[in-house]
Each structure stands twice: as C-alpha cells, then as structure tokens.
Amino acid sequence: MGDVTRRDTLALVVPIYNEEEALPHLVAEIEAFREGRSFVTEVILVDDGSDDGSSSAIKQLAARLRGYRLVRFARNFGHQLAITAGLELVTADAAVVLDADLQDPLHVVDEMVQRWREGYDDVYGIRKSREGEGVVRRGARHAFYVFFRRFTGVDAPVDVGDFRLLSRPVIDAYLQIGEQQPYVRGLISWLGFRQIGVEYNRPQRVRGSSKYSYRKLARLASTGLTSFSNRPLRYAVRAGVFTSVLSFVGLVWAVTTKILYPETISGWASLIFVGFFFGGVQLLFLGIVGAYIGRVYDEVKARPRFVVTHRWDSSSDEQA
Q: Which of 74, 165, 202, 236 would bridge 307 by S-S if both were Cys, CB 3.0 to 4.6 A apart?
C-alpha cells in the first residue's frame, strides 16, 4: 500500500527567547519566503519567557498577517519544551522547526519540502559550516554528536540540530512521548520513520547573541545522554568491581611486603593520594547515579511541562 499521508500544507515553528532585535528581520524573511508558497499556512512562535519585548514586537510585526500564532510561557522553560509547545499547535501536514536568529536559512526549506513530498518524514539540516563560531565550540559539538551515537545506540546524525521538517505522523508520534525534559533531536531519531539530510551553510546571527551558554549546552548534553542510555550506571558498577579487585590486590601486596621486609616504611603521601583518588571516584559515580535519580524524580512528579500565560492569533487582528 502506498503512502496516503497528506503532503500539502506546512507550518513554521519558531522558539523565541529575548530575540526582540532579530524579530523584524525574522518576520520580513518569513513573509518574503511565503510569497508564492501558499502551502505555508501557519507560523507558530513560542515565547519561552522572554524578559524583553519579544511578545509585543511579534504582535506589532505580525498584526494582519496571515496565519501567525503566538504562545507565551510563564517563565523560561527551555528551548526543547518551546519546540514541543509549538508542535502541539501545528494543524498543517508538516512543520519546519527553525531558530529565530535566521541561522537556519529559509531557502533550505524548499529542498526539505521536496524531500518530504518524495516520501520522507524527517528531513534534517546538516551543517556543512558555521560562520562566526569558534573552533572550541564547534569541536565540542561535533565530539558530542559522535559520542552520543556510540554511547546511546541511537542513530542520530552528526552535526544536526533542531532545524528539520517533520511530517504529521512524526509530530503525532513525538507528542505521545510526554517526557518532562525531552531531547527533541534524539527523540526524533529514536522514533525512526524515513529520514534524510540536506546540507547547508549556517550563517551568522543577524542580531543579538546566542542564548545557549556553555552551561546550557552541557545541561542539554547531559539530558540527551541520560535520556537514551543507562551505560553510565553500568560503567559505574564495572569501575566499582575493578576498584575493589585492585584494592584487594594492593592489600595482599602490602601485607606480603610487610612480612618479607619489616623495615619498610609506609609512605604517607601515597596513602593520601590514593585516598583522594578513590574519594573522587566515589563522588563522580554518586553524581552519575544522582543524575538518573533526578530524572526519575522529575518524571514522577508529573507536573505540567510548561505553563502558557498568553495566546495570540493574527486572525483576530485581521478581523479588527
């Protein structure tokens, strides 16, 4: 049986956090892109608790424009949950997730749509180059993607972010997951479906600075790893067994040395070093266990994943 999924209409989902300076450029680019592309029926913007005038700017810029919708979070719940909230509002046959800083070029969407209409359900953007990004940051990103694939067993493509086109079946399947702290790109890869990548050069931001600090990137990486693999826990057990065996061997050696060479004087420096070393190992693995317990704690509380305080639809201004 052939693919009977509709592949006609498209939505754009844009998470926003303190992007007031970039929004005029964003809306202008979106409207220029929509000219001659009537299949782009929805533009969904999710304000992730911005403390600048992002929401007000959106209303002014998109008033009387076709198909714009805005939701505003009560606080900053995070980029991944902003994407999730936007996907919940999609009624089109597919959605493209892109950043508000225009580092995800809209002209690439044409190729994504072409691949989608060929039958692919997840068309992701592969970053060939990144303008304005330092070598350390770029190298760390690449290393994480490679490590994530090998560590978790999830066939997630390397150097691929959240810029991607998702068909209706993928969106519906993703929204059934319901994790408190989703790692979107990992979950989409985990779902399967027909996937393909399109390459593009990632330009610099048009305005402002990146909202992903090294601390947030590290937290996102931790979320991704603990969401898809329990290997750190298994490694902790193996390290514990290895350490115990090594300690026993060391004890046998110490007793034997004392018997055969009574005049041997134990070294205080080595004892202190060993004590600090194994104390650090214990704290490290306690932290790993704590990270997993923390994830379980977040899930069992079953709190709402985000709180929306305001909704706006440009159709209300169109009718005004």
A: 74
